Amino acid sequence: MIPDPVLNVKSALTAAGAEDTVRIFEDKVPTAAAAASVLGCDVAAITNSLIFELDGQPLLILASGAAKVDTTLVASLLGAGKIRRAKPDFVLRHTGQEVGGVAPVGHPEKLRTLLDASLREQPLLWAGAGDHNSMFSISYEELKAITNAEELQVR
Known about the structure:
Layout: H1 4-15, E1 23-24, H2 32-39, E2 46-54, E3 57-64, H3 71-78, E4 83-85, H4 88-95, E5 112-116, E6 125-128, E7 134-138, H5 140-147, E8 150-152
Parallel strand pairs: 2-6, 3-5, 5-8
Antiparallel strand pairs: 1-7, 2-3, 2-4, 6-7
């Protein structure tokens, strides 16, 4: 049985006109390194969906698994106040997905989304698909389009 968060991601991909490339693994892939190992790709091709809190609202940053988001830089580029990593209950409330399995799509409401410009260098990206056992593949341009993300240097 496919978990509801993964079904939501599959539905969101289809609704956006993207190919449903969701793969479900027996073992969890909770980190970029674990996912890259299972998929046989570079960790830089893993797209982490990270939820931050900015002025009480969720901010989704799609970042390369090979880098750490510089929240001070992002706040400066956005002309915003402090950006902080969201707590697990905040993430679940706004995405319907648990930390470590958050996808770029399939959330109850549209989230403001930033896309790490360094991901453009990868021919194929892999992103979480709603839980700890699922991933999907997508091109940079398609990911940018289906999430309506703003491209930004996040590190």
